[in-house]
Amino acid sequence: MIKKILIVVVGLCLISCTQKQVTESASTIDETGFTTSVLVSDKLSLRWQVKDNTTLEAALIGDPQGKGWIAIGFGKSIMSGAKIIVAQNGSDGTSVLDATGYNYGLTNNALTVISSKNVTLSGTAITASFNVTLNDVNITLNESTPVIWAYRTVEQSTKDNLGNIGKHSSRGSSTITFK
Ligand code: HEM
């Protein structure tokens, strides 16, 4: 009996020790005052600056290696409740839209939180620029903000309803300290 209890205790210790730690994204500031935070090395990054302590001017830059979508979510380390920006490179054009995570899906925001946006493509690489108010995406300055990211490589038409974009090919989470 004691042996069994010991095995369970050691097992639980091993599980808790090997749990994935959420790490802060490596960030570098350039001469223009923008910071690049790497979400996935050589695949996905966020280039950002905070204007007037209220607005996040950002560009999500990523290459799903084919038509598809790239996304970032702010304020949560899971989908549920995250404030999400999705940039689609579809068979019929491009789009940048926002949503809130709901369980394992997305619900379009009733009022968009994006105040300006633009998409440029270079081959399959997407640069999606967008401006949002820090409050609308649950960012508190100088505090570590949980972020989630995802991308998907499937050629499909752009979806106005982000609930229909389909599941990611890859996803993950980290943190960024916006300042
Ligand atoms: C309609 C689109 C989406 C669907 C159907 C979907 C579906 C799912 C499902 C079924 C899971 C659990 C299985 C797994 O771990 O792979 C999951 C987890 C996850 N997804 Fe999504 N997803 C969508 C969009 C997104 C977007 C846009 C992001 C990032 C901005 C994202 C980030 C994550 C993360 C970080 C997890 C693991 C944490 C968690 O459990 O929430 N997903 N998703």
What topology does this entry show?
Layout: H1 2-18, E1 27-29, E2 35-40, E3 44-51, E4 55-62, E5 68-74, E6 83-90, E7 93-102, E8 105-108, E9 114-122, E10 125-133, E11 144-152, E12 170-177
Antiparallel strand pairs: 1-2, 2-3, 3-4, 4-10, 5-6, 5-11, 6-7, 7-8, 9-10, 11-12
Report what the structure shows.
This protein has 179 residues and is mainly beta. 9% of the residues lie in helices and 50% in strands. The protein has a single domain, classed as Immunoglobulin-like (Sandwich), CATH 2.60.40. Strands 1-2-3-4-10-9 form a six-stranded antiparallel beta sheet, with no helix packed on it. The model has no long low-confidence stretch (mean pLDDT 93). The structure holds protoporphyrin IX containing FE.
Global structural class: mainly beta
CATH topology (level 3) name: Immunoglobulin-like
The biggest sheet amounts to: 6 strands, antiparallel
Integer count of domains: 1
Spatial shape: globular
State the end-to-end CA separation. Answer: 54 Å
What integer value in Å does the Rg equal?
A: 18 Å
Tally of DSSP helical segments: 1
Low-confidence stretches: none
Question: Which range best describes the helical content: under 10%, 10-25%, 25-40%, 40-55%, 55-70% or over 70%?
Answer: under 10%
Element order, helices and strands?
HEEEEEEEEEEEE
* Annotation, overall tally of beta strands: 12
User: Ligands bound here?
Assistant: protoporphyrin IX containing FE
- CATH architecture designation: Sandwich
Strand content: over 45%
What's the CATH H-level homologous superfamily?
Answer: Cellobiose dehydrogenase, cytochrome domain
The overall pLDDT, averaged over residues, is 93
CATH class: Mainly Beta
| Oligomeric nature of the chains | single chain
